């Protein structure tokens, strides 16, 4: 009995010692960002502003693009103003080039001791893809000429390339620039390309699908069909000449003193 009492007393003394020597733990406020999700319009690019509450952190270590592990460059990719951080359009426009893309940025904060606390910002892109107003056209083998279709640009700025089932067509950036061109409203495929692809009347009826690549957004396709008449013909094939309506100057009158034949 005495032995049990002695053990219990020792435990009580040990517990009281632990209570007396335990230092109080100070509460730490975790950093946060707001908002944690945002949208980026490719049609109307604009900066994204993020508010930061540094809490118990000693500062922002870096911002990381989770998709490729790259660290954003302060002053170029983003700018900080005390508790506000601004993501630049130059960075966002390079990271987001298609509607529906997601950019995950991890904000890494330096905490007391060897610790890092992170917060995630998810940015989703929206926008209108470029399209061709007409996706199918005819090229007339007999009359030749260029093929033109209007471009509805959306958030795209330029046409990068035009290709067929063989490869890229020569054009801007691929000299000689004689197969296609694009202006502020239209895509023009030159007759030079079609004359080379469809050199004979046997080409009539054939089609080619041209793949149009823009600097931003989804590609578009233009299907061109070779049409025309393979065999020359006359229309109509029978004509009539009305003798009574022949002009007087066209009549062969007999010479004076010569009787006309009976």
Structure description:
The structure is a single chain. The protein has two domains: 28-126, Immunoglobulin-like (Sandwich), CATH 2.60.40; 131-227, Immunoglobulin-like. The protein is 13% helix and 35% strand. The protein is built from three helices and 16 strands. A hairpin with a 3-residue loop joins strand 7 and strand 8. It is rod-shaped, with a radius of gyration of 40 Å. Mean pLDDT is 85; it is low at 1-5 and 11-23.
Put the structure in a nutshell.
Helices cover 13% and strands 35% of the residues.
Features:
mainly beta, Immunoglobulin-like, 16 strands, 4-stranded mixed beta sheet, 262 residues
Topology (elements, then pairings):
Layout: H1 2-21, E1 32-34, E2 37-41, E3 48-53, E4 59-65, E5 78-81, E6 84-87, H2 89-95, E7 102-111, E8 115-126, E9 131-132, E10 136-140, E11 147-152, E12 159-163, E13 180-182, E14 186-189, H3 191-197, E15 207-214, E16 220-227
Parallel strand pairs: 2-8, 10-16
Antiparallel strand pairs: 1-3, 3-6, 4-7, 5-6, 7-8, 9-11, 11-14, 12-15, 13-14, 15-16
Helix content, binned percent: 10-25%
Mean pLDDT metric? 85
Integer-rounded radius of gyration: 40 Å
CATH superfamily annotation of the largest domain: Immunoglobulins
If you consult CATH, what is the topology of the largest domain? Immunoglobulin-like
Given the C-alpha coordinates, what overall shape results? Answer: rod-shaped
What percent of residues are in strands?
A: 35-45%
Number of strands: 16
Order of helices and strands: HEEEEEEHEEEEEEEEHEE
| The CATH class of the largest domain | Mainly Beta
